[in-house]
Amino acid sequence: MKGFQYLNIADELEKLINTEVYPVGRKLPSLRLISLRFQVSIGTVLKAFVLLIDKGLILGKERSGYVVLRKSVLNVDLPQRSKTISGATEVRLSPVLPQISREEQEHQSFVSFFNAVLDVGLLPLNAIRRSLQHASRDLSGAHLLYEKANGNPLLRQEIAGRSFRWKGALSAEDVVITNGALEAVGLCLRAVAEKGDTIVLESPFYYGILQTIEALGLKIVELPGDTLSGIDLDQLEQVCEEHRVAACVLISNFNNPNGAMLSDQKKQDIAAFARRKKIPVIDDDIYGDLHFDTERPANIKSYDADGWVMLCSSFSKSVAPGYRIGWCAPGRFTEKVIRLKALTNVATASVVQLSLLQLLNTGAYDRHLRKLRPELHKLMLLTLQAIEQYFPVGTRMSRPKGGLVLWIELPQGVDAVLLHQKAIAGHIQIAPGTLFSNSGAYTNYIRMSCSNLWSKRIEQAIQQLGNMIKDQMMKNKN
Amino acid sequence: MKGFQYLNIADELEKLINTEVYPVGRKLPSLRLISLRFQVSIGTVLKAFVLLIDKGLILGKERSGYVVLRKSVLNVDLPQRSKTISGATEVRLSPVLPQISREEQEHQSFVSFFNAVLDVGLLPLNAIRRSLQHASRDLSGAHLLYEKANGNPLLRQEIAGRSFRWKGALSAEDVVITNGALEAVGLCLRAVAEKGDTIVLESPFYYGILQTIEALGLKIVELPGDTLSGIDLDQLEQVCEEHRVAACVLISNFNNPNGAMLSDQKKQDIAAFARRKKIPVIDDDIYGDLHFDTERPANIKSYDADGWVMLCSSFSKSVAPGYRIGWCAPGRFTEKVIRLKALTNVATASVVQLSLLQLLNTGAYDRHLRKLRPELHKLMLLTLQAIEQYFPVGTRMSRPKGGLVLWIELPQGVDAVLLHQKAIAGHIQIAPGTLFSNSGAYTNYIRMSCSNLWSKRIEQAIQQLGNMIKDQMMKNKN
């Protein structure tokens, strides 16, 4: 049994966490103290800690100790698989969105769970300042002329070089720099689809891309998604038999909003499908770098054999939205995308590209990510736990393995738009589920971002939301 | 006669310039020396100098003296008024353009008269560096979140405040910041026209916008233009009777390529026309700040009474192309343009906006412009003179009062695309006229940028071009 002693230690520690002897946010005693307390070696305690880290219960910070992230008891189910929505429809987005966006801009003092965006406190402000200073020093007149339409060659090289992390093999020539991922997706769509064409995507899906699709006059078919495994390949095949499909748009890792991550097998199958059917697949892997597990997950492009997969991504979610640097690797459509990019805005601003290049090639980006990822994981677990505590029984939640958002199914009958209105009155913002579909579905769903630095105020806001939901349920009963 | 003595002095000096006693580029003797030589007061010499400056023959530099710009004899006619081109056509751009653009990118060591872009030596590099350093110092986390879709409020205020210079009265809310003027024009077009709609524009017209129109699937009608006065209003009216026109796109000041500037009366009439016919007019006033006369000219928006004029502009031609900061004031279509901007790339990078704001509100931009404008004027006059000297008799040239380019009509029978190919072989780049129309016209026209710092190499390249043209004419004869 000696070899498994660390399991007993881990169990003991887990109990102490669940009974709140060591509540969430508290530091655990040092390795040394625990080894004395349990009369085992420091190595054994360390093994127990690693187990608890793997279970997501504690967070190890070198030198500064181990912090409790969450209790292991979480009695909340996953959201249900969304239903099939058949027929290609023109996108007519929920009329609530423009209003919400305006409120979002106007009330920046609200507690906002609306935007999938890093808290200001999580941005690498000093590294960015340094990189800008370096960029301004390195700036030559040549940098201030028109940048190449596909972007700074050194920056493209850096991005391409990083593709080995997701099992890709891009070269600098495969990459096109854009003003953010939304522009990348828009350019890819314009390269392969014309007004009136049909696009397939997972349901629920990010409203920003839905709006872009609307602006381009494209139709969509929504494929039912699942918070764990994403779309179903058989259904994808079937839809593509029933409709003349110009492209699929997917988010292979940590889908926004439902958090789904496609398995490697499914990614591989979709790449093969794209090739076989000659249907371009646009993979918006914008959250891939924000994985909570140790390894950077693959994406669909990782398995792209002959250029039918168009990968899009950006640094908006991992560095700073204000940078507006995204990119795509549009495979066989690269030349067309570059041409459209040139005709849209000639090129992306060279100064920002230089500054991002600095962040990447000095290692500042990777150092930032190493700190950011466990921090985001912790924030998500804290949010999960608070929702479990304060939302009514019957609430279901996604368990994403990365990214910034939770997808929450409220008990049937709860009206998320009404909840949103109540929340606004209470100076809280959430994203009602109807935004994430063209079908009117998800009336009892909300998306909440988990990227606010944790505070009493955040926890209270979640409690308030819970009370609002319970109020609504009471009223519905009467 | 005493009061008009300065006219005689001016005549005397003009003769000395034309007979090359004081050749182009040479400093004139000091005020003091000339007053001694002609036995008149320094004030009288100064009045003569002002006259010569007004005639564009000399350039006055405070403290550093007066330099000869050009001789007053310029025996070159203006290009002929372009012919009416009837019928709305889908844009199918000259197949030569993609090839030319690639060559342009690949051979940056060539002498290039191709791009309408400032010479690296004319960019305010140090001011830009300083502004970036300030921006990086002032940078807060909030700046790094998503910028408002319509742009930084302070920057919009600065731009709006400058509208009084062109007799406009914009407020910050009228302005939308974009990634350059081409994006601004594209967004304005998308706001008012759908695929298949017809756009009216002046012929010849900037190929970049022609390509954008092509990418949007729009048709065009080309109105004949004139290098002095631009389009004819009666013809505009007539075309709009014959076609259902979704919008007009014009460049009211220093049209690219033919240099035309609309008169204030015509600007006013076009604004009234837009209002009367309810046809949006997009005015791409991107060169307006590069006027050679003392006053900043008005544009069509100056006379816009109720929002049918959509003004576009940028700092690419006056500060640096790599900044990619443009803007538009889309009048009654502002909300739609902001929405399209948000769906295209969310917002323009905040850091670059901050840096440009610095340039504007510290006065660095205006100081730069005050130096830049006479410098560009001088370069244009030098180019005019060299072309007169080296190109064959029968060459005709525009005389723009601002901007960066000359529009040159070569003797009939000269093939500008062939000339372009010869020039490339001689490591020189020009823009053949066929790029500037969808009609196949302008086969014997070229556009040449005048924004290269003057050097022996530049002059020799113009001489080489002249010889190539003469060679072609000889071969044509045989």
UniProtKB/TrEMBL annotation, chains A, B:
One GO BP annotation of this record: alpha-amino acid metabolic process
This protein's record includes keyword Transcription regulation: yes
Keyword terms, alphabetized: Aminotransferase, DNA-binding, Pyridoxal phosphate, Transcription, Transcription regulation, Transferase
Domain HTH gntR-type: 3-71
SUPFAM superfamilies according to UniProt: PLP-dependent transferases, Winged helix' DNA-binding domain
InterPro entries xref list: Aminotransferase_I/II_large (IPR004839), Class-I_PLP-dep_aminotransf (IPR050859), PyrdxlP-dep_Trfase (IPR015424), PyrdxlP-dep_Trfase_major (IPR015421), PyrdxlP-dep_Trfase_small (IPR015422), Tscrpt_reg_HTH_GntR (IPR000524), WH-like_DNA-bd_sf (IPR036388), WH_DNA-bd_sf (IPR036390)
Cofactor requirement: pyridoxal 5'-phosphate
Family in the record: In the C-terminal section; belongs to the class-I pyridoxal-phosphate-dependent aminotransferase family.
Protein name: HTH-type transcriptional regulator NorG
Species name: Pedobacter steynii
